[in-house]
Amino acid sequence: MTLWTASDAAAATAGRVTGDWAATGVSIDTRTLRPGDLFVALSAARDGHEFVAQALDKGAAAALVSRIPEGLAADAPLLIVEDVQAALEALGRAGRARTSARVIAVTGSVGKTSTKEMLRAVLAHQGRTHAAEASYNNHWGVPLTLARMPADTDFAVIEIGMNAPGEIAPLSRIARPHIALITTVAAAHLEAFDDIDGIAREKASIYRGLEPDGTALYHTDIDTAPILRDAAARHAARVIGFGCARSAHHRLLSTELHATSTVARARAWRTPLLYKIGTPGRHFAMNGLAVLACVHVLGLDRAVAIADLAAWAPPEGRGTRERLVLDLAADGMSIDLIDDAFNANPASMAAALDILAASRPQDDVGRVARGRRIAILGDMLELGPTEAALHAALADLPAMQAVDEVHCVGPRMRALWEALPDARRGERAATAEDLAARAHRLVDAGDVVLVKGSKGSRVARIADALRRADRHQEKDQD
Questions:
Q1: What are the backbone dihedrals phi and psi of residue 284, each rounded to the nearest 5 degrees, phi first?
Q2: N or C: which end of the chain has fewer CB within 10 A?
Q3: Three-state SS at 157
Q4: Where are the beta strands (DSSP E) in 128-261?
Q5: Which tens digit of pLDDT belongs to each residue from 116-172?
């Protein structure tokens, strides 16, 4: 199905086209480009113009460029503009303008990608749904998501992130959401802000892009809730709070963590709710409540949404749980891996440790005899001058009392390692690569192992190293 004709793309971007082409998608990366995509030559780590010829050779319908790269054929299909980034934003605005989709924008210090994926899963069974890939939530990710949106979309879910002040409002204005949701505000990206209040004000700027009849959703339980509520009141026609507070329109009453699920009870004003999330985590229950609030605002079938939440699982690297078999010949010779290695800040660390604490190791199956809860934790990045104290404070979390061993990766995690009691201290490594080389020796059958850290800490390599010990994978490769 055609997404952009040459004439439509030119009109949207005020650009000049060569050739008469039609694109079925939009791509910024030749590695994932599909035949028929419009290749956008963004300049990031490298200048995208260097890859235009390669993109066309791979079947791109055309390339969006600000200059004609050397060596192209005279009849190469192009969309030539003054500035590629500005043109991508214009294409996103045009993609948003031509659809009647109901748009939900999601931001938050923790949980925005998981909540976006919950919304995708829930809305997909109630209409044609379009949502951002991975964490495409920045200055190019948001317009790219909108530019990829089919005109006949019913629901769109747009994730909006930030690294510094002033980034969220412009992206929200491009998205023009009918619903703007803030999952929570926590200590993340503190390097760029004076304090948590500054982060809250930046998150609250998502409400500035709301459509005139828009609804603002905010978390009632956090200290910065008044900042969010006041901003919502200024920009939204309707304000809905969700949380455990009595004032919350959608109020979480209780959560029960099980080995592979979370059961929650809540009230949506006067309506009692009982719902299940297909993975353990109190934060997932709260995010699920926010999703049900969105379903309520959209006037959709809440019972269908609740059924879909029960089948939902987090995306890879964000709390996914898998069983790795260490010995195919003996029963129970396995470990449970909780892979949460994509991102980390104090709030998400606390949530992940809660999940680990609620997990049930298996006794009498390994060489240690008693199953253990093991945390392999990498640096939390971008926390500013208080980073050492924030890392050390993890030792005092209630959930940490249920953890048997904590292995620490990176220079910042040294503060936690030194704050831990000797009985809980595991190994300390300067880099993830150092620990990955001996990761298989840190675990035993029956253990539950959490791997978590900021993406830049590279602890995902440790999760991958543990997976290489999975005998099921070896069997599949034979």
A1: -65, -35
A2: C
A3: strand
A4: 129-131, 155-159, 179-182, 215-219, 238-243, 250-257
A5: 999 999 999 999 999 988 778 999 999 999 999 999 999 999 999 988 899 999 999
Q: Is 111 one of the annotated binding-site residues?
A: yes
User: Which residue intervals of 159-281 are DSSP H helices?
Assistant: 168-175, 196-204, 225-235
Has 157 been labeled as part of a binding site?
no
pLDDT the model gives residue 478: 40
Q: Is 114 annotated as a binding residue?
A: yes
Q: Strand 373-378 to strand 405-409: parallel, antiparallel, or no bridges (unpaired)?
A: parallel
> Does 84 appear as a known binding residue?
no
d(CA 218, CA 249): 10
**Average pLDDT estimate for 194-207:** 93
User: By mean pLDDT, which of 208-217, 246-255, 440-449 is the weakest?
Assistant: 440-449
How far is Cα 78 from Cα 61, in angstroms, rounded to an integer?
9
Angle among Cα 27, 33, 34 to the nearest 5 degrees reads 110
Query: Comparing C-alpha atoms, which of 408, 398, 458, 412 is closest to residue 433?
Result: 458
Residue 180 in this model has a pLDDT that exceeds 80: yes
In this predicted model, what pLDDT tens digit does every residue of 394-408 receive, in sequence order? 999 999 999 999 999
Give the pLDDT confidence score for residue 473 in this predicted structure.
Answer: 54
Q: Is the domain 4-82 a CATH 3.40.50.150 member? A: no
pLDDT of residue 331: 57
Q: Please choose, from the candidates 326, 320, 331, 323, the residue with its C-alpha nearest in 3D space to the C-alpha of residue 444.
A: 326
Distance CA 242, CA 182 (A): 10
* 110 labelled binding-site residue: yes
Out of 3.20.110.10, 3.40.50.1950, 3.90.190.20, 3.40.710.10, select the CATH number for domain 320-477. Answer: 3.90.190.20
DSSP 82: S
113 labelled binding-site residue:
yes
Question: Mean pLDDT throughout 270-280?
Answer: 93
The answer to whether 7 is annotated as binding is no
**Overall CATH class of domain 99-310:** alpha beta
